[in-house]
Amino acid sequence: MDNSSLLEKYIQYQLEHGKKPESVYVFMKKLKKTDADFFAHFSNFEALDRYFWVNVFETTRQKLEADKQYSDFGASEKLSAFYFLWTQELMQYRSYVLYLAEKSIKGINPMDKALHDFRHAFLDYASSIVSAGIGAGQIADRKFISEQFKHGLWVQTLFLLNFWLKDTSKDFEDTDAAIEKTVNIGFKLMGENLFDEVLDFGKFMFQRAKNSFS
Amino acid sequence: MKTQERIPKTRIERAAHIAGAGVKVGGNYLKHYAKKLVNADVSREELHKDNAGDIYETLSTLKGSALKVAQMMSMDRGILPREYQEKFQLSQYSAPPLSAPLVNQIFRKAFGQPPSAFFDEFTSKAVAAASIGQVHKARSKDKWLAVKIQYPGVANSIGSDLRMVKPFAVRLLNMSKNDIDNYFDEIEGKLLEETNYALELKRSIELSAACAHIGNLNFPTYYPEWSSDKIITMDWLEGMHLKEFLATNPSQEVRNRIGQALWDFYDFQIHELKTVHADPHPGNFLFLNDGTVNIFDFGCVKEIPDRFYTPYFRLVDRNIYKDREKSLAIFKELELLHDDDTEADIAFFTPLFREMIDMLTLPFTQDTFDFGNEQYFGGIYQFADKLIEMPEVRNSKKARGSRHSLYINRTYYGLYHILFDLKAVVNTGSRKFY
Ligand SMILES: Nc1ncnc2c1ncn2[C@@H]1O[C@H](COP(=O)(O)OP(=O)(O)O)[C@@H](O)[C@H]1O
Ligand SMILES: [Mg+2]
Predict the structure, then answer these.
(1) Fewest Cβ atoms nearer than 10 Å: which of A40, A210, B160, B345?
(2) Is B125 on the interface with A (CB under 8 A)?
(3) Minimal Cα–Cα distance from A211 to chain B, Å?
């Protein structure tokens, strides 16, 4: 068995049973396989959970990089193209993601451990988008602050993910509109001083909150 | 193309915008009446300009449906007609552009592939803005094409947009909620149709085939294989928008020829097909110096029911007024008058409607009509101004006029407006109504 077929069975199991398998042993026995088959690929279910998210991300990125038009796009267009394709790629797993989201009150949570590897890969990708944007003068280059932009893009990614999960519009066209609008606004923020102000305000609030507790 | 700041995206944000316009308009009225106390000469024009500006600013950031409603409202009761119309005509050209990846996405969802897979060339940026999307120019072999692409999510927001404009309309039009509902129903239906590009494609093909025989008109060929409910592909059309065209100083003969072609186009649709391209907005025609017009955009089409058509055009015959019973019955059929109107209502409204109808149908009663006649045009606007000055009209809670009159009147207003700008002399008397 390879990574993707293990993932597929793992997803199937959860959707059918409404919970994770009790153990790797039980899971593999159901598949009429030994647990060694599992451990050759993943150390535990948590690793598989992380693999799910990072795999969708990497597939998306590879497809984008194979697309000639993508390389001609500017930074904001690249990011939009990423979100369009990413939500498209997630479509085949929609039931599973809905199932995952149901487990928590607020949908998919940015702190979710399963997102760890995806987050790292995404931040890496987001850095390249931000530097491209800075290079093209689309994004303001400011010490310390430009470094933070990628985290803003990560928050945006999770926002769009949860938007897509709740989207009931035909053909998910509201998600398309949300992608278009948030990317436009995001780049506007990164291009102006507004971001500094927001960040400054955030720091201020953080300090106040800290002081009032100590 | 000007890139719009951003579209207010949440319901709350939009509601706040509309409320903003309402407040400002109220303020303008206050200012107006305050000024009037001191100086009786303050022109209404000034007030209208202030209002139109504020409403325009607000509604144009909403785009799409809210803007259309404002357009309709301004036309119907003659509320702020001239000032509004000028502003609203600009609105056609200022939609927020769709990004190239979004255009790809819309194509992928429709056909599984981005435009580059279908066309030899495809402009990455829009060449023109549409009210709810944008137009790209494309090439397939040696053929140039126009590809109109719709913004995602537009249809979904129409219902909620209208619900938010409604209280605003109630205030501006001073009508009962029931009557407003009836009008809004008509408008909402039409707006929803306008977001249905599959329907637009079907109607475009049908109506342009039906009108193909009319002289000096050109229609594009449509390509269903490259069209979907969000995309319409047709031949690229050359030509200029009205303003640009007029700036080239076309000869009287050319202007007459174009005016005649447009007149014949509307005449044939209204009287023969009873289905009409109900959006004679200057942005929907491209004019050529050889005296021909290119026609597209069958997004807004009104089907005219017989029960409206028959009484409406019977009023072309001025003799009808000699028979009071008959003319009152017709007014009732058109819902200009209602069964519960008092004698005083009838005595007040009948001459007003007559004046209005006589004015609008005047071209039908003459062999040739000079639409460049400033006096005729000024008269229409003066009449509209007179109407809103009348407390009886302002305070009438009842709708005056059937819902079908909304789009039919708008069609005639729009057509006359273009013919006026063209200063065209047109043969208008060939059809006999009685
Ligand atoms: N076939 C065409 N050839 C050239 N330009 C076109 C064509 N169709 C549309 N356009 C341009 O795009 C603009 C908007 O198109 P239109 O169909 O009127 O959109 P909407 O339905 O939103 O009003 C037009 O005013 C015109 O400038
Ligand atoms: Mg148009």
Answers:
(1) A210
(2) no
(3) 34
CA angle B422, B424, B429 (to 5 degrees): 140
Phi-psi region of A32 (alpha: psi -120 to 50; beta: other; left: phi over 0): left
Q: What is the pLDDT of residues A155-179, one digit of tens each?
A: 999 999 999 999 999 999 999 999 9
ipTM exceeding the 0.95 mark: no
**Domain range summary for chain A, segments of one domain joined by +:** 1-42, 50-212
CATH code given to domain B96-150+196-236: 3.30.200
- How far apart CA B256 and CA A113 sit, in angstroms, is 74
Is B169 within 8 Å of B406 (Cβ atoms)? no
What's the whole-model pTM score?
0.81
Instruction: Give the tokens for residue B376.
Output: 């005729």
Decide if B412 contacts B313 (C-beta within 8 A).
Answer: no
Q: Which residues of B touch A176 (CB under 8 A)?
A: 102, 105-106, 152-153
Least confident of A159-173, A190-204, B111-125, B338-352: A190-204
- Crossing angle of helices B81-91 and B44-62, in 10° steps, is 30
Where are the domains positioned within chain B? Answer: 11-94+154-192, 96-150+196-236, 237-434
Which CATH topology does A50-212 take? Tetracycline Repressor; domain 2 (1.10.357)
Helix, strand, or coil (residue B426): strand
